[in-house]
Amino acid sequence: MSLGEHFAEFRQRALKSALAVLTGAIAAGYFYDEIFAFLSAPFNDYADANPKSTISLNFGEATSALSNLLSMSIFVGVIGSSPIWLYQAWAFVMPGLTRKEKRVSLAFMGATVPLFLGGVWLGYTILPQSLALLYGLSPEGTSNIQQTSMYFSFVMRFIMVFGLGFLFPVFLVGLNLLGILSAQRMLRGWRVAVVGVVIFAAAATPTSDPFTMFVFAGPLIVLYFAACGVAWLLDRRRAKARPDWLDVADDQASVLED
After folding, report:
1. What is the dihedral of CA 207, 210, 213, 216, to 10 degrees?
2. Which residues neighbour 118 within 8 Å (Cβ) at sequence distance 6 or greater?
3. Least confident among 1-5, 23-27, 52-56, 185-189
4. Which of 34, 119, 124, 149 has the most other CB atoms within 10 Å of its CB?
């Protein structure tokens, strides 16, 4: 493709992704009450478990309920339409791959959506423990009356960070498919990678407690070594398909086959 055709392709893929997110956001707005109850459940569970504490969600302004409806609908729309926009991202890259690489990328694309949704599920699962740790630091006699928009902003960032973090191995395997990062190089730098994952987990998670950081960093480290395994298989397959004459020096004659 020419540069103009690449831009046209990108615009088409971006438009399809935006329409998918918009459709998901409209559907989420229709089920707003159910989604509100689902995302506020960890907060309400903590309030029920601590009846002596003063804790509640509060709409502080006249427009707060509307802004919360819009932001929550878009958030759920992004998650709900993730199979579509993740596919569009891969479809934009696929024309530059060989036939074998396309088959591998499609197989790996099948793991992308479960990884993203798995990260979202893990974020929601550990949310109650993280809230309990944070609210438990409040001194006696104080209250936790929170702005609803602030609470849901925290929850949505918390869940989204886990979902996007679980796409880390997809990025690594993509670099391997492009020939930028080999499995040997990834394995050789595993110590640096582990330290980097821990630092990323500490910086990316909205909370500052070590529990959340290690729960996030642990699966990412496992996924890093899983990506190393996939990259090793891809490198091995490419090595087998590589013709012997490519390894012959320029000033040396290759062996002619009968």
Report:
1. -120
2. 166
3. 1-5
4. 119
Q: Give the residue among 190, 192, 173 at the shortest CA–CA distance from 182.
A: 173
Query: Which letter, b or e, does each residue of 118-150 get, where b requires 16 or more Cβ atoms within 10 Å of its Cβ?
Result: bbbebbbebbeebbbebbeeeeeeeebebebbe
Pairwise CA distance, residues 19 & 21, whole Å: 5
Task: Kindly compute the dihedral angle of the four CA atoms of residues 146, 25, 18, 105, in this order, to the nearest 10 degrees.
Answer: 90
* Predicted TM-score (pTM) of this structure: 0.71
Identify whether the C-beta of residue 178 lies closer than 8 Å to the C-beta of residue 131.
Answer: no
How far from the centroid of its chain's Cα atoms is residue 17's Cα? 16
Residues 6+ away with beta carbon under 8 Å from 48: none
Separation between Cα atoms, residue 115 and residue 164, nearest integer Å? 9
Q: What are phi and psi of 208, to 5 degrees?
A: -110, 10
Strands (E), the chain: 54-58, 143-147
* Encoded tokens for 59: 């709409």
Residue type, 15: L
- How far apart CA 216 and CA 210 sit, in angstroms, is 10
Q: What is the Cβ-side half-sphere exposure of residue 19, based on CA atoms within 13 angstroms?
A: 7
Is residue 23 over pLDDT 90?
Answer: yes
pLDDT tens, 60-113? 777 888 888 898 899 889 888 888 887 787 777 666 666 666 666 666 667 777
